[in-house]
Amino acid sequence: MAVQESVSPSRPARPVGIHGTRPNASRRAAFATGASPLLAVCGLCGGAGTTTLSYLIARFAVGEARGHVLVCEPDGPAVGLAGCAGIESPWSLVEAATRVARGWPMPGGPYAVDERAGSPGHELRVIATGPRLVDVSGDERL
Questions:
Q1: Which segments within 69-132 are labelled E, that is strand?
Q2: CB of 108 closer than 8 Å to CB of 61
């Protein structure tokens, strides 16, 4: 339920939330601290289009964003996001997280840049790898 503020001659009425806060106050506060919005796209089964939708949203967002956009997917047996983007990052999301947790270096960074999307200062960054038939929990790949 939204209510209207009192109207003054110098300022038009704007909607106020139930608890007296503006609907987008937390979003403005997040941007003020340098935080970025987060969108999680989750699918319940393979083939539902979750990866394609995620990639297309990211490609759109990089044109609208004030900075870079990161799109990533967890490890999986399919090509998924790496196939949609046509590029692979050096490490999967799980491998990159493991390297960070162990304090290991990540030469070249954890992501690949999709050169077909974005522009200077507005990169579409991708963390995704193709199918891997190795155990990513062991140190031999990392």
A1: 69-72, 112-119, 122-127
A2: no
Residue 6 pLDDT class (50, 70, 90 cuts): very low
What is the reported pTM? 0.67
The whole-angstrom separation of Cα 115 and Cα 127 is: 14
Domain boundaries, the chain: 37-142
Cα–Cα distance, 125 to 121 (Å, whole number): 11
Q: CA of 1: how far to CAs of 22, 58, 87, in Å?
A: 12, 32, 46
CA distance 78 to 36: 29
Written in H, E and C, the secondary structure of 7-60 is: CECCECCCEECCCCCCCCHHHHHHHHCCCCCCCCCCCCCCCCCHHHHHHHHHHH
Q: For 19-61, how does the pLDDT look when each residue is reduced to its tens digit (9 = 90+)?
A: 444 555 655 555 555 667 788 888 888 888 889 999 999 999 9
